[in-house]
């Protein structure tokens, strides 16, 4: 049997949890904080593979093993690795208080509506994009992915000079919780820029990224971030727009299917107009940046985002000039561009990690857009969308009203071309 003990936030495990253990495995600070049973072997966790091999030797001989971990070891912890190797039936898990629960307790906030993301040994960009998209996030940090790195990635978001001159709606504050439960415990509120300028050392337990205006949401039934939308490809009347300059819902439905927005993604909406695509991507959990050259369009996009309870970072500039200062996207939707369309597609294809979707009313622009995608190593496909909607006629009869045809082109990055993506 393997007893897995979560030490909570600074608390030491009770003596009885270690009694009889012949092998005790844990981090150096965990092992130094307990009195080991006489004669017990100890392993300081570094690389996991050698420790797991030793545990297997003990388990094979039916010799008791205790593994010490921080907080709740079943929450982004060692329980997953142990269960995969030895089976869940071999584990006796005794959780402590997780750093996430403790950090939210310290600031007096509920966290049933929080999104928790781990940057420990993982790509930081996923955590950054989740922080961009959600108002309440807990980030589990690690070497090279701590408060400074997170702050540096977020300090240019949320209404910076490159975006609209409107107030910084959705601005974030970081709560850096260090050495929770110990005599050195410290919980500090800082801006992303302040976090980026500091050396935080090795004691950071967790970082909360909060939109202070939205830290208390409605009472939840299902825990986690924003509830999944009941539907998408919303009707045009769900958005403020100018002179019907909006991506029609039939086109938007297929575009969303090809973009595949999800939590942790960043999506660009180029030539955003009303921002309907960006808003829908945000409703599905992705971070979204809308690029729109018209000042009134910028305000319209921000208003549409607020109306749907999401945040969209709006850049008031023309593409492709606006693109170099933006973080790399997972997916891009291009709904405008005019004569600059080939250059815009080329610039977006050089940066997109997964897919680029282009909507065009002018058939003449399709060959150049397709050439730009295939030239960047994307596999390319497309369809001409023509739909007719039911429309009433006098006398309680119905006719079909045709919408303008739109050519939708999409490029998907192939595995061989992934090395060409800007890092």
Q: Tell me the structural class.
A: alpha/beta
Radius of gyration: 26 Å
Which spans of ≥5 residues are poorly predicted at pLDDT below 50?
A: 160-167, 416-420
Helix content: 25-40%
Write down the CATH class of the largest domain.
Alpha Beta
Percent range for β-strand residues? 15-25%
- Determine the CATH superfamily of the largest domain: Vaccinia Virus protein VP39
By CATH, the architecture of the largest domain is named: 3-Layer(aba) Sandwich
Quaternary structure classification? single chain
Count of the separate structural domains: 3
The CATH topology of the largest domain is given as Rossmann fold
Task: Kindly report how far apart the N and C termini lie.
Answer: 44 Å
Biggest pleated-sheet summary: 7 strands, mixed
**Secondary structure tally, helices:** 13
Overall pLDDT: 89
The order of strands across the largest sheet is: 13-12-11-14-15-19-16
Summarize the structure.
The protein is an alpha/beta fold.
Structure description:
The protein is an alpha/beta fold and 423 residues long. It folds into three domains: 2-97, Tetrapyrrole methylase, N-terminal domain (Cobalt-precorrin-4 Transmethylase, domain 1); 100-214, Tetrapyrrole methylase, C-terminal domain (Methyltransferase, Cobalt-precorrin-4 Transmethylase, Domain 2, 2-Layer Sandwich), CATH 3.30.950; 236-420, Vaccinia Virus protein VP39 (Rossmann fold). The chain has 13 helices and 19 strands. It has helices spanning 15-18, 28-32, 48-60, 79-86, 99-106, 124-133, 147-154, 192-196, 249-259, 276-283, 295-307, 341-349, 366-375; strands at residues 2-6, 23-26, 41-44, 65-69, 91-94, 115-118, 136-140, 173-178, 186-190, 204-210, 266-270, 287-292, 313-316, 331-334, 355-360, 378-385, 388-393, 397-402, 406-413. A seven-stranded mixed sheet has the order 13-12-11-14-15-19-16, sandwiched between helices. Helix 6 (124-133) links the parallel strand 6 and strand 7 (136-140). Helix 6 (124-133) crosses helix 7 (147-154) and helix 12 (341-349) packs parallel to helix 13 (366-375). The longest helix is centred in the first third of the chain and has 13 residues, at 48-60. It starts with a strand and ends in a 10-residue tail after the last strand. The model is unreliable at 160-167 and 416-420 (pLDDT under 50).
